[in-house]
Specification:
- This protein is of the alpha/beta class.
- Helices cover 38% and strands 19% of the residues.
- The chain has twelve helices and 13 strands.
- The strands form two sheets. Strands 3-2-1-4-5-7-6 form a seven-stranded parallel β-sheet. A six-stranded mixed β-sheet has the order 9-8-10-13-12-11.
- The structure holds L-homoserine.
- The site of L-homoserine (HSE) has 7 residues, from loops.
- The site of L-homoserine has 7 residues, from loops.
Length: 365
């Protein structure tokens, strides 16, 4: 049995990965070793075939005994440890949630439902670095997989509505703290009118007491139209990733432009996206629907009516699920090659942990 080392398994993406692997009885297929940056020697999680003690995550000797390393520890850890491990001749498979290695020539961005064959071919060619994609990119590609497969897409503009989870666990909690503060202020003024409350909330949001150490700004009762760092193009880094990562995953011969505005909203763990899709040729709505709906087992077409949209196409309905719904699919008045759509998915499942789980199983098989 292959020896698999897990680093960062207690963080948010790591915990969801552990949960999924336990649910699907994956641990029976490997010998597991759990690494830690702070509690080496403490008891390890009690999963099947696991070594019973935690191992030191900064110890290259211990790490290099593994056939496969799965890191959900973050970019700083990858930047520090990965080059040293390879530098001293470790030839195992590195599976990573962080973006550090995504665009390197010797890394494959993994998204099983979309590029499983390419992953398999890459393994056969000796590729040993496999990296999960950006969450909005992965969810977009699962939703539009059919149209890309049929080579129908000329370009996509994606306006995102990204959940707090994408910014990390502390940020999720901060959003809830902000909401608590809003709730407390509301409760203190039971007789106030809507306009009086609005003034109190606006004052509250800009006060120094409002909890915003992590986001830097209020997210509750607000939206934040910038995610990640600034790029010279005027895009945010999150916006820049859409085109470069999607084209790398799809292995396109000529670049399919994908661009838009990425916005943080007060959802907890589902990223949503409003799409304008420019097709290469005109197509009937029913054809587009059929192509979209049948592309992979995870995409789920939601009929474009009010009742089903509001029941099924919301973060509240999709949180914790592996399905990637897409709806609001309709031709636009812009022209007969333009389609509107709205899609969303769980940022921690297909957006982060599930592609890592799939590639790990592929390496083991
Ligand atoms: N960068 C994403 C976000 C999460 O901030 O929502 C990770 O893919």
């Amino acid at each position: 049995m292959k020896r698999v080392g897990f680093i960062g398994w207690r963080g948010m993406v790591g915990s969801v990965l552990m949960e999924r692997m336990t649910e699907e009885n994956d641990f029976g297929q490997m010998e597991s070793f759990f690494f830690t940056t702070s509690q080496s020697g403490e008891p390890a999680p009690k999963v099947k075939n696991a070594f019973d003690k935690l191992l030191p995550a900064m110890d290259l000797k211990e790490l290099s005994k593994m056939d496969i390393l799965v890191s959900c520890q973050g970019g700083d850890y990858t930047s520090e440890i990965f080059p040293q491990l390879r530098g001293q001749g470790w030839t195992g498979v590195w599976i990573d949630a962080a973006s550090t290695l995504r665009m390197k020539d010797d890394s494959v961005i993994v998204l099983d439902p979309v590029n499983r064959t390419f992953i398999q071919d890459s393994m056969a060619r000796g590729v040993r670095n496999f990296v999960g994609g950006n969450c909005t990119v992965s969810l977009l590609l699962i939703a539009l997989h059919g149209l890309f497969k049929e080579n129908l897409v000329e370009w996509v503009s994606s306006m995102t509505y990204q959940a707090a989870s994408g910014a990390g666990a502390k940020n999720m909690i901060e959003l809830l703290d902000q909401m608590k503060s809003v709730g407390t202020t509301f409760a203190a003024h039971p007789a106030a009118s809507a306009l009086e409350l609005e003034k109190k909330m606006t004052t509250l949001m800009s006060s120094s007491e409002f909890p915003k150490a992590n986001f830097g700004h209020p997210l509750a009762l607000n939206v934040l139209p910038w995610i990640d760092s600034e790029m010279p193009s005027g895009q945010s880094k999150e916006e820049w990733k859409a085109q470069v990562e999607a084209n790398k995953i799809l292995q396109t011969k000529s670049i399919i432009p994908i661009d838009g505005t990425c916005v943080r909203v007060g959802a907890l763990r589902c990223h949503s996206q409003g799409l304008t899709i420019k097709l290469k040729k005109s197509a009937h709505l029913s054809t587009v629907e059929e192509i979209v709906a049948n592309a992979n087992p995870w995409v789920k077409l939601v009929a474009n009516n009010k009742a089903e949209t509001l029941k099924e196409l919301t973060p509240g309905a999709v949180s914790g699920k592996l399905s990637v719904p897409i709806g609001r699919l309709r031709p636009m008045t812009l022209g007969d090659t333009y389609f509107n759509a709205f899609t969303l998915g769980d940022q921690l499942l297909w957006g982060a942990a599930e592609p890592l789980r799939c590639v790990l199983l592929q390496v083991l098989s």
